[in-house]
Write a structure and sequence with these properties.
The complex is a heterotrimer. By secondary structure, chain A is mainly α. Chain A is built from 14 helices and no strands. The longest helix of chain A has 44 residues. In chain A, 41% of the residues are buried. Chain B folds into two domains: 242 residues, P-loop containing nucleotide triphosphate hydrolases (Rossmann fold, 3-Layer(aba) Sandwich), CATH 3.40.50.300; 116 residues, no CATH class. Chain B has eight helices and 22 strands. Chain B is elongated, with a radius of gyration of 25 Å. Chain B starts with a strand and ends with a strand. Chain C has a single domain, classed as MetI-like fold (Orthogonal Bundle), CATH 1.10.3720. Helices cover 70% and strands 1% of the residues of chain C. Chain C contains 13 helices and two strands; from the N terminus they run ααααααββααααααα. A two-stranded antiparallel ribbon of chain C has the order 1-2. The longest helix of chain C is centred in the first third of the chain and has 33 residues. Chain C is globular and about 75 Å long. The chains are: A mainly alpha, B alpha+beta, C mainly alpha. At the A-C interface, α1, α4, α5, α6 and α11 of A face α1, α4, α5, α6 and β2 of C.
Chain lengths: 296, 367, 314
């Protein structure tokens, strides 16, 4: 093989590198412009929700829309809060969320520990079966579960909102994988020292798997916050209603001549806790979500 | 194509935002790589050898200094216009393409008048594959190849576009010991056959010494010595180079020069002229010892290892900078293993003196 | 050798999960299949002592049911529209994000925001944005009292306002709004996964391509997309599974009547059909529909797996 590349003159080289710089700059500007526009589109509904929620109804109805409220109406929020009795809904949802998260964590940790660290007959078969159930759409369970909870007399209780969803195969899987990364020698060493399983779990495994546990907690809480279908079926009474159902029930009309500022205020109130959680715990949410593919 | 590096310097901004310390990866590198030679850039990790290679490739821009290919200043030229071939440490073969597709890939990137016809591309790909002896494997995927075969594919891919300069980043580090020996001969052969100026980076001195025309020893971004391998081995310019080259490594002693005599501890091992009295570091190559019942250097015998042709004697001396001293002598010499003491005389051209502070070589003449 | 003590300890730790899974997962699977294959099964009648014959009548009824076909059509249409659109858009955004340095994390956070929302709540915001109330009841006296911002923008550029979701709106307009909302909602997860995939591609492949003078377009089509193909496959399959279960986003925009005021249930989906059957206490029909949904998801997953094997590398 010989050198076939022609030698370039000084001028040529300068031209080539100058041209490259220009192309690079144009590409970079294009990238930022594209991302900027997309970001604005993504953000716009949030912006519109907030400014609409602060407008008077008259201002909202103006045929030429304003992009900043002329008169800021915080009273919309108070009105929304009472109109949809959001207070009650908040308490209900929070109660269901906290209780189901705590119980779910205990069950998940124990199961994941058993699958990751203990040896028992049929372990792999059983884990495989569990994973297989993840394929099945939840709607298939709902039909029978509806019947079951009716028979159990759980209709319109908090129990019905908590118990059927305590076990998540996905969370067990996630935590098991995490536990398996902890070297088995640590467990054996603890056994040699006479540490009990529970103490070992509490002192070693849980601290090491904390990020995953936090991810699970957040996703579970978000799940309670966003649940809609099941609560509507089984606990749609005043005393047990969840926030999403309450919001939907209070504002049945989505189009037409609606008092949008108050409605948007209610939507903003319901969305706020999610955003707060996101702002402070973004890392955990994104880590959990990227492995799941399921919404909240 | 000769490659000229002129005052080449690369400074990385500190990774830690708070401290403003910069890392000088390469400092003021000057060298003219002659056309058609195989150059080994050698040094421990972090010495700047890879950074130098990447600056020649154009993937990294120098902070200051210039790079010339022939008479062209290519410092500002981007990688793709430099006409180089680069073999990455872990080969960077595209896992989703077959060997043939991998080798063809650089050719398919060419545009306009430079773009060969389809037949010509295939012909060149097969030519390159034959050169590295992988023409039987053209339809395999990289994951179906052994490490050595992947290495060859990577070289073929770099050669197929007929680069002006071929760059290899730690080409042998991912191969097992047997393949490493074989492949380094292969690289030597390919370089000879193509005559392309080739620069490769390695931390393995044996590898560099065995195939390079010229080696460049670097430490902490600064070039220590440049020369033919044997020349550098026989005449290291400082203690670092002396220690870095050679297996087993050179034996280092704390010593002194007094009245024209070189002392290791109490033992005057050599008489020299034109060296003023001072504390020195003394380096003696393992092959620089002669078993000599009357020899001036008295060591405690620790162990004798017979290795067929040679005998390796492990001994200790209070002035030794290392825990033990290793000498290699011809197996014809009988060692009295029952004795607790072994005495040596020293071959003068295998002994080097270094300044205690600067560790620079002190040249002397034997009296 | 399996330690006996470990045996019973393991079962003890697993017992809460096992009990709950038996009751709320395993039994439902068996029971749903059972109910689906009993002609006209209704729990209320079963509780009253009625018996049902074995047969595939539920399935036949479901697939002959016109409303089911509407649901199936809506579901498939939304899947076919939203999955490719959101995947391509997410891929472009992820690649763009991956090639910038300043503001990367900030923009990444913004693009993730729609994920942490309540589909019902934000659906109401979209409904407000696409709303129009004007003279479409036909009388001259009516004035525009509320207009959605989208129509305001269309009018600003001189276009005719479109009736997106209100009384008298067209099916095409409804589907357009749903597509926009679902894509908006689906982007964050896809961007997150694809960006993660991009960032785990060994940078040396790009260096190697650069050395060889590969053009941007060629790097994208010949290196980035093939190396990202496992992630793209993952995003597409989860997108299809999610798409076949579409329901709440439609409730968010159109309310529980699943359509504009004059044509309720026009936009109903498979999941909606199942719940409707359930709330009418027709468990047999609901079960059959659920099994059909499961079958479709299974087939789509298998097709995807088969295509992936051929097209996805490694």
């Amino acid at each position: 093989m010989s050198n076939t590349t022609t030698t370039m003159s000084e001028k040529n080289i300068q031209q080539v590198s100058a041209k490259q710089k220009v192309v690079k700059a144009i590409v970079l500007i294009g990238l930022y412009a594209f991302l900027g526009i997309m970001a604005l589109i993504v953000l716009f509904p949030f912006y519109w929700m907030i400014i609409s929620s602060l407008k008077t109804l008259d201002e909202y109805r103006m045929s030429v829309p304003t992009f900043w409220p002329q008169k800021i109406m915080f009273s919309n929020y108070a009105e929304a809060f009472t109109a949809a009795s959001l207070g009650r809904l908040f308490v209900n949802t929070l109660y269901v969320g906290v209780v189901s998260t705590l119980l779910s964590l205990v069950i998940t940790v124990l199961s994941a520990f058993a699958f990751a660290r203990l040896e028992f007959k049929g372990r792999d078969t059983m884990f495989g079966l569990l994973l297989a159930t993840m394929m099945i759409p939840g709607e298939l369970f709902t039909i029978t579960n509806y019947e079951t909870v009716t028979k159990l007399g759980w209709m319109n209780t908090f129990t019905v909102l908590i118990v059927p969803f305590l076990v998540s195969v996905f969370y067990i899987y996630l935590l098991k994988q995490n536990f398996m990364q902890i070297p088995n020698e640590l467990y054996l060493a603890a056994k040699v020292d006479g540490t009990s399983d529970i103490k070992y779990l509490w002192k070693v495994m849980i601290p090491l798997a904390l990020p995953t546990l936090i991810s699970i907690t957040i996703l579970k809480m978000m799940g309670a916050w966003n649940s809609y279908i099941w609560p509507r079926l089984v606990a749609n009474d005043e005393a047990h209603r969840m926030i999403t159902n309450g919001l939907r029930n209070a504002f049945t009309a989505t189009s037409g001549d609606v008092n949008y500022p108050v409605q948007m205020a209610a939507v903003a109130i319901v969305s706020a806790p999610l955003f707060l959680v996101f702002i402070f715990l973004r890392k955990y949410i994104m880590a959990g979500v990227s492995r799941s593919g399921i919404k909240g | 194509m000769k490659v000229v590096l002129q005052n080449l310097t690369k400074v990385f901004p500190s990774r830690n935002k708070k401290s403003n310390e910069e890392v000088v990866a390469v400092s003021d590198f000057n060298f003219e790589i002659p056309d058609g030679k195989l150059i080994g850039l050698l040094g421990p990790s972090g010495c700047g050898k890879s950074t130098t290679l990447y600056m020649i490739s154009g993937l990294q821009k120098p902070t200051s200094g210039k790079i010339f290919f022939g008479d062209d200043d290519v410092t500002e030229l981007s990688t793709e216009n430099r006409g180089i071939g680069l073999v990455f440490q872990n080969y960077a073969l595209y896992p989703h393409m077959t060997v043939k597709q991998n080798i063809l890939f650089p050719l398919q990137n060419l545009k306009g008048a430079d773009r060969p016809s389809k037949e010509e591309m295939l012909e060149r790909a097969y030519h390159a594959a034959k050169l590295v002896q992988i023409d039987e494997l053209m339809d395999r995927k990289p994951s179906e190849l052994s490490g050595g075969q992947q290495q060859r594919v990577a070289i073929a891919r770099a050669l197929v576009k007929m680069p002006r300069v071929l760059l290899l980043d730690e080409p042998l580090s991912n191969l097992d010991a047997r393949l490493r020996l074989q492949t380094r001969e292969e690289i030597r052969r390919i370089q000879k056959e193509t005559g392309i100026t080739t620069v490769f980076v390695t931390h393995d001195q044996e590898e560099a010494m065995s195939i390079s025309d010229i080696i460049v020893v670097m430490k902490l971004g600064v070039v220590q010595q440049i020369g033919a391998p044997q020349e550098v081995y026989d005449s290291p310019q400082n203690l670092f180079v002396a220690k870095f080259l050679g297996t087993p490594p050179i034996n280092v002693f704390n010593g002194s020069v007094k009245g024209g005599k070189v002392y290791i501890g109490e033992d005057a091992v050599l008489e020299v002229t034109n060296v003023p009295d001072q504390e020195v570091m003394i380096g003696i190559r393992p092959e620089g010892f002669n078993l000599d019942a009357e020899g001036p250097l008295k060591c405690k015998l620790a162990n004798v290892e017979v290795m067929g042709r040679d005998v390796s004697i492990v001994s200790t001396h209070e002035a030794s900078a290392n825990p033990d001293i290793r000498s290699i002598i011809n197996a014809d010499n009988k060692v009295d293993t029952s004795s607790e003491i072994v005495r040596y005389s020293i071959k003068p051209h295998k002994l080097f003196l270094f300044n205690k502070e600067t560790e620079e070589r002190i040249y002397f003449e034997v009296k | 050798m399996v330690d006996n003590k470990q045996q019973w300890k393991a079962w003890l730790y697993l017992s809460p999960a096992i009990v709950l899974l038996l009751v709320f997962t395993l039994w439902p699977i068996i029971n749903t299949v059972r109910m689906a294959f009993l002609e006209n099964y209704k729990s209320l009648e079963a509780a009253g002592g009625a018996t049902f014959e074995f047969g595939i009548g539920n399935f036949l009824k479901v697939i002959q049911y016109k409303r089911f076909l509407t649901c199936l059509k809506n579901t498939v249409l939304l899947c076919v529209l939203t999955v490719p659109l959101s995947t391509i858009l997410a891929l472009l955004i992820a690649v763009a994000l991956n090639s910038i340095k300043p503001l990367q994390r900030f923009l990444q956070t913004i693009f993730f925001l729609p994920y942490v929302t309540n589909s019902i709540a934000i659906g109401m915001v979209f409904a407000a944005m696409f709303n129009i109330v004007g003279a479409f009841y036909g009388t001259e006296q009516e004035i525009i009292v509320t207009a959605g911002i989208i129509n305001n923008v269309i009018q600003f550029f001189g276009g005719e306002p479109i009736n997106w979701i209100n009384y008298g709106s067209t099916y095409a307009a409804n589907i357009t709004v749903m597509t926009i909302y679902i894509v908006w909602n689906a982007l964050p997860f896809k961007i997150l996964v694809l960006l993660g995939g991009l960032q785990s591609i060994n940078k040396q492949y790009y260096d190697a391509a650069k050395v060889d003078g590969t053009s941007r377009k060629r790097i994208f089509t010949r290196i980035t997309v093939p190396l990202l193909s496992p992630m793209i496959a993952y995003v597409v399959i989860t997108g299809f599974i999610g798409g076949f279960k579409e329901y709440t986003s439609i409730v968010g925009i159109f309310g529980e009547k699943m359509g504009p005021a004059d044509d309720a249930y026009r936009l109903n989906t498979m999941v909606g059909f199942i719940y409707d059957a359930l709330s009418q206490n027709n468990q047999g029909r609901a079960s059959a529909a659920a099994l059909i949904l499961f079958g479709i998801i299974l087939v789509v997953t298998m097709i995807n797996g088969w295509v992936s094997k051929k097209r996805v590398h490694f």
